[in-house]
Amino acid sequence: MKAAVGTAGMLKVLEDKAYGKRNSIDNETIFYILQVATADGHAAHLVDKHEDKKDGYEAYRKLVRWFEGDKLTTETAEDIRSKMDRLNLSTKNTASEYINQFLQHNKHLEELNEGYTRSKTVNIFLSQIMDPYYGTTVEHCLENRLDIHTCIEKIRAKERRITRLRATKRKIPIIIRRQPTEEEKNDHQVIKLESYINERGFYSVPGNIWFLLSDEDKSHVKEHNGKMRRERSDSDKSDERPYKKRKHNIRNRRNISDEEKEDDSHDSDDRRTVQFKGNMDNDDKDHVEDEDGTSDKRLRPRRGVLRFHTKK
Q1: pLDDT digits 0-9 by tens, 184-212
Q2: Where along the chain do its domains lie?
Q3: Is 308 exposed, middle or buried (0-12, 13-18, 19+ CB in 10 A)?
């Protein structure tokens, strides 16, 4: 409220009652400003009590006692102290931000007559600096018992040095390319490209030598390397790889049903299948006979089941 009224040049009305009576227009203007500011709040009734006289000074004093009484002043001071205790200077914030917030809270405490002593203020300010870059500066301030303003100046000076140091580390090196001299331009006639052919047959010219080559030599190198790449790719395509014979899938053969197998090989009248569960000994295999006394000793194991094919 003081900042808003001070911009209009009417701050003295809030501080001096006699001045407000002499300047009734300014006093009335402040009353209307307070009425608009508290229209939607819980303290509008305090301003409306002075609507008959339009006394801005008395309305302002009522609001001060309502919001900043003795009990509320103590509670407000405790809230500000808790905010100051949570402040710290770390790598996540800057020293300027920390200094600004600390001074604002300290000023608010002094306005409420709840401020710390000078030595206590300095100790709180320095103890909450956690950034290791400011360690030496903090030790210097503690050893010399500097006041709060001198400590702030030391911290700000250290911040400027840290900012310059970080800026120099982030600088990107600048690569300057100079134009070749006339002597260097004439040296390309002496360069032998054959000496830069590698084992695979490609030209491998270093950058400093490539810069000195003529346009004809550069185009020759590019055409030669491109031709070598095309020939190599064609030779890779023409290579015949040996055909890998596919293995017979035994699992699919075992999964063939009995009806499909009998239909593909012989009729159902020519061959009958007898299944034996479990294992068969060699002695039992010789005595397996059909109804007519004929037997066929071709045994085929199929998943734990012996199938014995017989002929009529």
Answers
A1: 555 545 677 888 888 888 888 888 788 77
A2: 2-67, 72-169, 182-235, 270-279+289-312
A3: buried
